[in-house]
Amino acid sequence: MARKLLLKNDHIAGINTLDVYQQHQGYEALKKALTMKSEDIVSEVQKSGLRGRGGAGFPTGMKWSFIAKPEGVPRYLVCNADESEPGTFKDRYLMEYHPHILIEGMIISCFALGANTGYIFIRGEYMFVLRKLEIALEEARKAGLLGKNILGSGFDCDIFVSPGAGAYICGEETALLEALEGKRGNPRMKPPFPAVKGLYQCPTVVNNVETLAAVVPILEMGGEEYAKIGIGKSTGTKLMSASGNINKPGVYEVEMGLTMQEFIYSDEYLGGIKNGKQLKACIPGGSSMPILPAYLVTKTINHEDRLLTYESINDGGFASGSMLGSGGFMIFDEDQCIVRNTWNLSRFYHHESCGQCSPCREGTGWLEKILYRIENGQAQMDDIDTLFKVQKGIDGNTICPLGEAAAWPVAAALRHFRDEFVWHVENPDLAQKQNYGLAKYAEMRPKPEPQPTN
Ligand SMILES: Cc1cc2nc3c(=O)[nH]c(=O)nc-3n(C[C@H](O)[C@H](O)[C@H](O)COP(=O)(O)O)c2cc1C
Ligand code: SF4
Questions:
Q1: What pTM does this model have?
Q2: Residue of the nearest CA to atom 4 in ligand 2?
Q3: How would residue 4 be classed by pLDDT, with cut points 50, 70 and 90?
Q4: In CATH, 338-442 is 1.20.1440.230
Q5: Is CATH 3.40.47.10 the classification given to domain 18-228?
Q6: Which ligand is closest in space to the CA of residue 353?
Q7: What percentage of the chain's residues is helix, strand, coil (to nearest 5)?
């Protein structure tokens, strides 16, 4: 059995309550942290090699070391629990079933950063999770784990939960800060970065739910021990939310370095492709990450095992790789239509664009419209080239990375499945009928390329 750090108590009934959490070493890491110097905690996190689990994989200890420390100015910790990327649902699981590991991780992080206030910005649709967090926070307050003079240490800290209003863009850290301040969630220009001017223009660290929870095992075992789990610069464990045509969808904690082959096909994890079908494609890190065709899922272009690490998934760059991102792992079987899927994603990104920059505001609309035409048999061959040009015009030309999130799935679908786009244009009647029964017309579409045997 693989090692678990965040979900190690998953099988224990009532682990969401303070009593049961404390019966299983809960808040012991906090007690240890309160005896340490704050800079030593930052140093442990640096040694652990922990990288942000929200998508970008930025080293957490390094981010913490950037926080500005002007005299007399408060600092804030903000937990990003917006989790609106299609295919990603691991933070919800952690907060719903293990709220205290997040709260403990946040108190330790606040202490390390010299922050007395933490906020959890949670997506509005997670109202039932918000209530569970509120209950857990109240339990912690009553037990003296939050509030004034925590456990007699002299350290004051409280944490508050704030719901979003249903906008994906509020997961982008600066849009999130705007929303927390009660404004429309428009991303800010960077620099200044939040570590210098964040919430209410004060130094702020924004971290993902999973990142902050991982601070607890790091403190328990020490940064160096944590760094021994995983491979190279991908240390520790990662929560993966798996969905699509697999036998066992759900949230899994994996040690970094697990092979894709084992993750997809072993019974311990996803249990293989549903109904004995063939694998067609995989999006490994949430809907904004490039899709991989079957032959690049379990092997890299150089026929090496593809591993669940930041580096291995990115092997070959975007020509033949993708990104681990948020760990939203989506599997497509041979019956799925890549054009339809790409159109569906484009619809989402067009809807969620905040509209501040024209390449994103206009470009996402173009992508959606052209993809709709291709999917519905109303397109001409040069629409495929226009599609390519529009996504290229967005990539790298916007204030925030939502533009790239919209462009990359289109670029990757064109790169690996161009024949399917061409098929839709050449077979308008069949393309139209597809809407009424994907599986029925699946056999008429180009088949996935066979995987190399070695
Ligand atoms: C459009 C968009 C949506 C995002 N949504 C989330 C999200 O839901 N949760 C998250 O942790 N990070 C999200 N991010 C990344 C955050 O901007 C930020 O990098 C992250 O919260 C930093 O935390 P980490 O270093 O712990 O990963 C999003 C980024 C973009 C551009
Ligand atoms: S890239 Fe899109 S979402 Fe981001 S700021 Fe520009 S318009 Fe808004």
A1: 0.95
A2: 400
A3: very high
A4: yes
A5: no
A6: 2
A7: 45, 15, 40
